[in-house]
């Protein structure tokens, strides 16, 4: 199972997916499998390996300090890496809501339209509200990234124009960064 690791690393398991902690060496796997022009188009473009390593180091630190972070999304049937998903705190210096709980995901291109993102994110949302007592969650994207905000709507999230911000590290076509949110009470009512 190329993307799988020991059972202790598994954080969330769904019907078709395993979400496990990021480990040393996973940056090379993500670089090879997920770092494509199509997958990264609305995420600032293809990244250098050192940029992925830095994000992974940050996520491993989040897990060590807070018990949550981003995870590798493994397809149970094949053991292959099919995505990246998780929970962190908003840390973009331009965001008006730094410190809010933020969810996010990406799925490799040959696994698009199979429902993996929604399956993973429903599990992450449950994990955030039940295990980490998040009062509310946000997700960030751009107007251009319609599949992303459509998924946010499918998850029951609501558009929050008051949280929009410009991120100069993204191209003009991907600005402003827009946000959707979901409150714990709102989520509980939908359960």
From TrEMBL:
MF annotations from Gene Ontology: acyltransferase activity, transferring groups other than amino-acyl groups
Pfam families documented for this protein: Acetyltransf_3
Domain N-acetyltransferase: 17-176
Highest taxon of the lineage: Bacteria
Annotated InterPro entries: Acyl_CoA_acyltransferase, GNAT_dom, N-acetyltransferase
Gene3D superfamilies given in the database record: 3.40.630.30
Signal peptide bounds: none
Alphabetical keyword list: Transferase
Protein name: Protein N-acetyltransferase, RimJ/RimL family
Organism in which the protein naturally occurs: Altererythrobacter xiamenensis
């Amino acid at each position: 199972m190329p993307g799988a690791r020991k059972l202790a690393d598994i954080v969330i398991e769904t019907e078709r997916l395993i979400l496990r902690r990021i480990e040393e060496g996973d940056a090379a796997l993500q670089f090879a499998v997920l770092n494509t022009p199509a997958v990264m188009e609305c995420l600032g473009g293809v990244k250098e390996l050192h940029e992925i390593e830095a994000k992974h180091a940050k996520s491993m630190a989040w897990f060590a300090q807070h018990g949550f972070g981003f995870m590798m999304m493994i397809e149970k049937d094949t053991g292959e890496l099919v995505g990246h998903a998780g929970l962190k705190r908003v840390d973009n210096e331009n965001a008006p809501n730094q410190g809010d709980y933020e969810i996010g995901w990406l799925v490799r291109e040959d696994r698009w339209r199979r429902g993996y993102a929604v399956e993973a994110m429903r599990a992450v949302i449950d994990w955030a509200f039940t295990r980490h007592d998040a009062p509310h969650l946000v997700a960030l994207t751009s107007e251009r990234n319609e599949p992303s905000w459509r998924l946010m709507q499918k998850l029951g999230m609501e558009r929050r124009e008051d949280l929009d911000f410009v991120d100069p590290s993204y191209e003009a076509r991907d600005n402003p960064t827009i946000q959707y949110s979901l409150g714990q009470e709102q989520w509980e009512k939908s359960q």
